[in-house]
């Protein structure tokens, strides 16, 4: 049970249909917020009176702008944006295919730029501040084998976070990033299978390798990340901006 109150706040969560995004949506609803999920895959029915789904591809400017318009029409306002949608592709840097590089950069970096721009314009106009929270990664701070495009895209997210934090500070808009470590989601499970194939290891062995690297002795559940996102969406983080907060069980400390 959360004690951080988001009653009356309206949040957009990209990639909120599953994984970390879904945990963020559930946490926001529990804290009293209304939530719009913007995801390219929308399988759910609107199951909660404060929850709406918009089928949106974050790489398409027209879809992003239309969704942001629909959200403000539906809820009357928007206060919080969580840029969570993301994908990964795996290969050694010297072998990455151009189409994979472009796709990863489009979803993970361009998607954050498009959604942040569309929402920040409205937040500025409304004049009541707001919160933008970008889900980067510890791959936004370190290099990782087989993850060249992904690592580049997550460094880009932190760069945009810092710049927008400075540019929007005078409007009372906080822009921060969360840098998760290893989180048990579909994305992570697929990475273990593909990474295993490329390295000649089983997914199970890679899972054990993952565990051995975390000082706190376990990988993260989506809820671990959502806990910190709720804090960054709340008034308790009003004096923080331009930060990339590690939620890694101690794996990354800078
Ligand atoms: N799982 C991890 O270990 C981990 C670690 C660090 C950071 N992250 C980041 O957390 C975020 C969520 O990852 P996850 O593990 O929950 O992944 P996931 O694959 O379980 O979920 C990703 C969601 O994003 C949506 N999505 C993908 N492309 C989209 C697009 N073009 N437009 C709209 N929606 C799109 C998918 O439909 C899905 O619902 C990503 O940005 C990821 O890079 C994950």
Give keywords.
seven-stranded parallel β-sheet; alpha/beta; binds nicotinamide-adenine-dinucleotide; 254 residues
How would you describe the overall organization of this protein?
This protein is an alpha/beta fold. It has seven helices and seven strands; from the N terminus they run E-H-E-E-H-E-H-E-H-E-H-H-H-E. The chain has helices at residues 19-30, 61-75, 98-126, 148-168, 186-199, 203-212, 222-233, and strands at residues 10-14, 34-39, 51-55, 80-83, 130-135, 173-180, 244-247. It has a seven-stranded parallel sheet, sandwiched between helices. Helix 1 (19-30) links the parallel strand 1 (10-14) and strand 2 (34-39). Helix 1 packs across helix 7, helix 2 runs parallel beside helix 3 (98-126) and helix 3 packs parallel to helix 4. The longest helix has 29 residues, at 98-126. The mean pLDDT is 97. The structure holds nicotinamide-adenine-dinucleotide (NAD). The site of nicotinamide-adenine-dinucleotide has 28 residues, from helix 1 and helix 5.
